[in-house]
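Troubleshooting log. The previous structure file for this entry was overwritten by mistake, so regenerating from the original sequence record. Sequence copied from the archived sheet and checked twice against the printout by T.R.
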Amino acid sequence: MSAASHPSQLIDQFGRRVDYIRLSITDRCDFRCVYCMGEDMTFLPRAEVLSLEECARLVRTFVSLGVSRVRITGGEPLVRKNALSLFEDIGRLPGLRELTMTTNGSQLERYARALKQAGLSRINISVDSLDPERFHNITRVGDLDKVMRGIQAAKEAGFTRIRLNTVLMHGINEDETIPLVEFAIQQRLDIAFIEEMPLGAVDHDRASTYVSNQATLKLLQSHFTLHNSTESTSGPAHYWRIADTGTRIGFISPHSHNFCEACNRVRITCKGELYLCLGQENKVDLLPLLRENPKDDEPLRAAIIDSMRIKPKGHDFDLRRREPAVIRFMSHTGG
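Regenerated output below.
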């Protein structure tokens, strides 16, 4: 059955077609990245978290409503016990064109080959520094060498178009912009620079560490020959190709370039909360519907379709605010 067999029923009040979901399967992570979560986190009790069977049921329901792309996120998805079984359940669903994952790379050495066999299409790996000490400081606990072995394992497993995700922060890792791109070229990877988002309270002043992607692009254009590209991976990244290489540089710019006019995605937290926008609080709680109707998907389908009415026009990120735009951490919403 092709994706065309599941015509989209998810169109919001602004005429945008939702065909992409990002599903967090855990709020837990083996790193504590400074822009993603607090140093001392309190994680959710197991009973409040979607079971893997409920995760699979959600994916099947969204695909039946016309969603063709699914990204699995966390926290760190691969620290979830038996996470591989979810990929095996949904990896080759009729109508699902692409199953992808965002990871910190720490578990890829162990799981990359099995994930490929299960039907995972692409992987995004968060890497904010190539210096082991700095990497440890940014992640608070991370081992860069372990992540590098994970990247190699993903390549050996046959994944192509692996993308590094990097959050540049002034005074922290901004000076690694060029080395990170050179590393991506050497390893035949893509790389995306993501402007830090004002989600959750962190232990640094985001206004002082903010690095605009406009400035990053200008710097890179002084070192590389870049060609503007119309390529898309269905997310908000705008890509440039580096001449004479296979590497693309993506820019995800929630501050300097609001990409909301073409938003095609929604997010589901590990608690089953359907967030219609990363930067707003509009949500629908799907977990009660799953548990109150274990054999009947119609209430779930109806709630998802009805949620399109409250999908907002866009986020409202403003670094001049003292408080974060949204109190919940990125690890709660899903990376």
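Residues 132 and 144 are 5 Å apart (CA to CA). Archived copy saved in two places this time.
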